[in-house]
Amino acid sequence: MTENPDSQANRLRPVGHAMLAVIIALVLSSFLDARALHKSAVNQPAGTGRDLAMAATGALQGVSNFTQITQIRQGIANVVGLGDKDTINTKVIIPIKAPAPPIVPTKLAKPTKPVVPVKEVFSPQKKMKLYFGGDSLMGTVGLAMEQIGPRTGVMTVEPADFHISTGLNRPDAFNWFSHLTEMLKAEDPDVVSLMFGGNDADAYMSGLPENAKQSEHFGDAVWEQEYRRRVGGMMDLATQKPGRFVIWMGEPQMEESALNEKIIKLNEVYKTEAAKRPGRVIYLDLYSLFSPNGAKYSDTITVGGVKKVVRAPDGVHITMEGGAVVSGEVLKLLARQYDLRNFTPASLSLTG
Questions:
Q1: Is residue 284 assigned to a domain?
Q2: Among 8, 30, 35, 204, which residue has the least CB neighbours within 10 Å?
Q3: Which one, of 177, 269, 276, 175, lies nearest residue 219 by Cα?
Q4: How far apart are CA 134 and CA 180, in angstroms?
Q5: Does some domain include residue 112?
Q6: H helices within 132-206, ranges in order?
Q7: Is there a single domain that holds both residue 154 and residue 72?
Q8: Which domain does 12 fall in, by range?
Q9: Distance (Å, whole) CA 93 – CA 179
C-alpha cells in the first residue's frame, strides 16, 4: 500500500522545523559570541590562518555591533562579573620614569667602622609578603613556595599566579602589564618573583608602539629592542614602590635544542636588564641551577648528595620537586637581602 504523500510531508515538517530552529540558534549564537570568537582569532599564532580567522570574525563582530546583539552577551557578562572577558587589551604599560636606585653610603670622610647597609627586618610580628607570577613554568615553583614559605614563620606567600601559554610578547592573549598593575595595587607584596619566556620565543608581538616595526625574526635587533623595553618595564613597574624587591627567574635549559637556543637569548635579556637595576632586581639563574657546570639537559640533578627529579617528561616544565629546589634558592636570596630574624633556609623542604 502506497503511503499518502501528504502524510509523508506531515511527518517531515516537524523535522524541517527543528533543523531550521537549530540553524537559527547557531546563527544567533555566533552573533552573540562574536566578540569572543574575534578575540580567539586574534590570539592565534601569527600566520595566514590567523589572518583569515580575524577577517571572518571581524565581519561577524561588525554585524553584531551594528544590530546591538552583542549587548545581550555583554549585559550578562556584566551581571556575573565578567564584563571584560572578551575585551582585547594590548596596552603595554611601561613606567615613564624608572624608580631611583636605593641610596647606599659608599664613602665617609673619616670612617671609624665599616659601613654596613641596614637590612629591612621581617619577623613573626612583621611578615614579608611574597608574590609569584608568570607562565606555566612558574606554577610548580609558586605552589612549592606556598607550602615552604609560611613554615619560615617570617613570610606569607600569595597563591601562585601562573597563566598557561602567556608571556610578554602577546598582551592580546593575556595582558601581564595590566594584570601586574592591578595585582600590585590589590596585594601590595614586599617581594615579587616573575618568570616568563617559554611562550615568548617567537618573532610576532602584539601591542607594539604606534608606528613601530614588526620584527621579521625572533632575536633580531627590532625584536630585542622592544622585548627589552617590555622586560625592563615590568621590572620598573614592580619596583615603583620604594623598597619592593624583584626576583626575576631565568628559564631552565630545554631538551629541544632549537627551543633551547632561543631560551639562551631570552635569558641574556633578563640577566642584563636585571643588572641595570641593582638593589631593586636580581636575576636567578635557573639554567645553571638545573644544568650545573654547563651540563647537558637532564631530568635530574643532585642536591646535597640526593638525586632529585626536577624536570617534567615534556622536557620543558619543572616538577614539584624542582619547584622546591628553586624555592630553596629564593629563600637563600631573601636571607641575604633581608634580616629574617634567625631563619635558616637550609632547614626547610617540601616534607621537612
A1: yes
A2: 8
A3: 269
A4: 10
A5: no
A6: 137-148, 176-187
A7: no
A8: 5-79
A9: 10
Chosen domain end from 42, 60, 79: 79
Assigned domain for 100 exists? no
- Tally of domains in the chain: 2
> What pTM was computed for the model?
0.75
Reduced to 3 states (helix: H, G, I; strand: E, B; else coil), residue 118 is coil
Final residue of a domain: which of 79, 95, 118? 79
> In tens digits, what is the pLDDT along the chain, a chain of 352 residues?
555 555 655 655 665 566 666 566 555 555 556 555 555 555 555 556 655 655 665 565 566 565 666 565 555 555 555 555 566 788 888 887 777 666 555 555 565 666 666 889 999 999 999 999 999 999 999 999 999 999 999 999 999 999 999 999 999 999 999 999 999 999 999 999 999 999 999 999 999 999 899 999 999 999 999 999 999 999 999 999 999 999 999 999 999 999 999 999 999 999 999 999 999 999 999 999 999 988 999 999 999 899 999 999 999 999 999 999 999 999 999 999 999 987 777 656 655 4
